[in-house]
Structure to design on (241 residues):
């Protein structure tokens, strides 16, 4: 997936979309100052557009990305659901990445750039067809296109074999995120970092409230990396036991 490198978006279009997103943002009761401070980054991302994968950046909230940059350490072991820009960004900065992807075509694209990298292990788990009547809700992808009647059970359980408390950074940014969270919390070390993208979505709230109650949380809202729309990313810290 690559962008048109010659296209430069007109300033009036960038400003117009930004004002539209800012209006929706403040209508949700969020401070306008938080939106405005992200405009320089927003303009940069939109002026000469690149996909996050091209830019080698995770597709998350801009301010969460800046925080993540400050948290990364070379000895970290990373588990991520959703391969792509985050894999490219982290591949030369951490000890290991165990990456889980569901899309076979996209998986091959990531393999081209990361498949031979010594500290990256890419794993493909394609969802299977199953009668909707027999499909547990937690394994249905409610936010993905073309996912009707597919079970993501194997995908959500793809890291079950990893040792408990072996992961320093857990990234939840793929399909069936609540199920992935529940299945992998034990893999995260005490004091470990969880990055959960799109925490503004209502379908994630019950699981977050149930399983992450008592965890330190920093919520980042507004401008998104390489994207015209505002989103929210949350970073959590697992309590030390």
């Amino acid at each position: 997936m690559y962008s048109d490198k010659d296209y430069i978006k007109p300033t009036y279009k960038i400003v117009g979309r930004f004002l539209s997103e800012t209006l929706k943002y403040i209508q949700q009761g969020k401070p306008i100052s938080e939106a405005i401070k992200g405009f320089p980054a927003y303009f940069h991302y939109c002026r000469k557009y690149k996909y996050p994968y091209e830019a080698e950046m995770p597709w998350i909230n801009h301010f969460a990305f800046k925080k993540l940059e400050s948290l990364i350490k070379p000895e970290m072991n990373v588990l991520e659901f959703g391969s792509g820009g985050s894999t490219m960004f982290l591949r030369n900065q951490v000890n290991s990445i165990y990456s889980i992807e569901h899309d076979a075509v996209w998986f091959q694209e990531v393999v081209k750039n990361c498949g031979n990298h010594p500290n990256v292990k890419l794993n493909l788990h394609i969802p299977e067809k199953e009668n909707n009547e027999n499909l547990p809700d937690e394994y249905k992808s409610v936010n993905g296109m073309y996912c009707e009647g597919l079970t993501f059970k194997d995908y959500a359980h793809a890291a079950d074999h990893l040792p408990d408390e072996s992961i320093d950074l857990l990234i939840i940014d793929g399909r069936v995120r609540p199920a992935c969270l529940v299945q992998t919390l034990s893999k995260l070390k005490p004091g470990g970092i969880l990055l959960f993208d799109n925490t503004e979505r209502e379908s994630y709230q019950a699981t977050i409230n149930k399983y992450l109650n008592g965890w330190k949380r920093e919520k980042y809202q507004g401008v998104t990396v390489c994207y015209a729309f505002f989103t929210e990313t949350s970073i959590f810290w697992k309590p030390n036991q």
